[in-house]
Amino acid sequence: MSEPDGTELIPAPRRLVRDGARRGRLHQGTRLVAGPGTEGVARWLRATLGAATGLTFPDGGGAAPRLTLSVEPDLPPEGYRVVTGAADHLIQGGDAAGVLWGAQTFRQLLGPDAHRRAPLRPGRAWDLPAVTVEDAPRFAWRGLMLDVARHFLPKDQVLRHLDLMAAHKLNVLHLHLTDDQGWRIEIERYPRLTEIGSWRARTNFGHRASPLWEEKPHGGHYTRDDLREIVAYAAERHITVVPEIDIPGHSQAAIAAYPELGNTDVVDTSALTVWDTWGVSENVLAPTDHTLRFYEGVLEEVLDLFPSTFVHLGGDECVKDQWKRSATAQARIRELGLEGEDGLQAWFVRHFDNWLTARGRRLIGWDEILQGGLAPGAAVSSWRGYAGGVTAARAGHDVVMCPEQHVYLDHRQHDGPDEPVPIGYVRTLEDVFRFEPVPPELTPEEARHVLGTQANVWTEVMEDPARVDYQVFPRLVAFAEVAWSRLPASAERDFADFERRMTSHYRRLDALGVGYRPPGGPRPWQRRPGVLGRPIEGAPPNV
Prior knowledge:
The chain is built from 17 helices and 20 strands. By secondary structure, the protein is of the alpha/beta class.
């Protein structure tokens, strides 16, 4: 195998032309020229690339070597062009986002050490290949869903993941902020949501069939200032943060904080606590006017914090047993002329669909929200395979493809005994690389409703940031290429070429401090002994 020459780019670009054996250089004399609209990228470049290289990139043109940033109208949205030469270098984008993605490619061309937090040898000059790279993304939605409800990730870890997303040209962070096991967003008018709802007394350690318990409280939440900082940090990296407030199921933490939100005529909700195990709780929101007003109040504060067009309202796995037994729920079904409990859930979702639409936002939810029909502007996250996405696209709804069989990164990466908490489907790096977000049965018109794709990181079995790293990487790298790079003419992605480029990219991940799963399996320190290192007795093979 030939030595890496700095052009092992990930995601794979549409066009890369080498200028023979020539090399470009960066050194302390290299000046930064930031054209209109590129000021934010210039700040990122000085802060991030400057920290790694030790170069200061002073302002100005003149005869000195230059690195020039510019927005060029001939390039598509998020598209970029990078030209490196003997002295001068260009990073051009169709918009500011494109300039940033070009800067990420430029950083890769400089080699793995350009991804460090501090230079190994301050003051050194940096070589890079003389190339022209032209590229643009396949999809507008290239997302990562982080579940911070099951296991809380501190703010600094969220910021870190935003940096890792930007390094891989991902542009949507879907934050799963509420669930049965925790409420993570400060709501000023309802303080008990975090005072009570953000903490559980203990945690089932491992998957739900595990007999192990961590007998200590787990919790935490983001203040309004935390979330403003996260949103601003993401915006500097051209990443949109989409908040998720899960309703009407997955709501036990909220009911524990405000018992009147539950079905009080069939269960003593005052005795409920934040759930300490995994699975799907039967404690769901009551379909009352009080519940509607409460969550309208929640969403008013959510809209104030998150400027994203889309707001995710969950809508998945709503167990309807309590509604079946509730006189209040049954009376509402009769009052509205609904078709049973499924119709009641559809009514609940449509209420907030209309509420968001009236405020210039769009609802997105898991594919269960299709039951009972949706307003035209609503979009669907298709997680139970492709079927929900196909149904939605054919009905004229926009779709984000995130089927659990392909891009749930909590699922195991290997079926060997060393794999920590071996749950779900075995999905290797190659499996994720082979994922195709657009189902072949869609017509070209229907396929235009596929906004893009998203990898989902559910954290039931990810008790700390190290486990998140291990489960997410390197598979997120393969996913990023799927989300960004167009299919080749053969419609067959070249995994051997991807593995070749990953040889360099593992060194970039090392420099970024990512505790990824190595290609040959877990390192000894990554192995989990006992019940966490083998299938749990009685657990199904794919759960």
